[in-house]
Protein 1
Amino acid sequence: MEVSVSCLGKPHKAMSENAVNQGLCKLGYTTDRMTTHRFRAMAATMLNEMGEWNPDEIERQLVHVDTNQVRRAYARGKYWDERVAMMPHWSDYLDRLRDGGKVCDLIVGQRKGLDLK
């Protein structure tokens, strides 16, 4: 089972990347500021930086296909339980960004503040 943002009135049809980008444009975001792909890149980057999840779990959550054909043929795990556990952490992180709370201290040579538990 995959979960995605759906079209209004069509709950079983995922919104296209272009539809989301058009929505962002209507909210005042130009494509040089934010796109659907940038949301996905941000999620991949931050979830990997949190260090709590296997990169394969993150890639599966983003519905990325492994470019290595041999690996793709044998690595078919869905990581459902891990992905379900990942999403509340991601949601909490986004809530802290929205609310202007402490998200991450950036200190040269040291990572700090990435534990989202």
Protein 2
Amino acid sequence: MSSNDIDPSVHKHTGCTRLLKAGACSLAGFGYAMNEAAFRLEVIVGSILIIGSLFLPLTLVERLILIGSVLLVLIVEVLNSAIEAVVDDISLERRSLARQA
């Protein structure tokens, strides 16, 4: 695709407007993720783990590893939900290969 293929009628936001639009999309995605039961459960368990770690004699590195692990679980869950949404959008019928996605 060359630069000549860009549609001039499409207006792209720049600067602060772009950041605000991106933030709005991120919040909408977070709202969608909170509708997923698995994500809500992982947020609850992760919150309990992080709050519980405040009462344990952990080093800063250990706490950061725990927080990073919880965030990684949440990120993977969001990616999984996105893949499921794409597979559902492509076809609503059950396919054996959809499980492998």
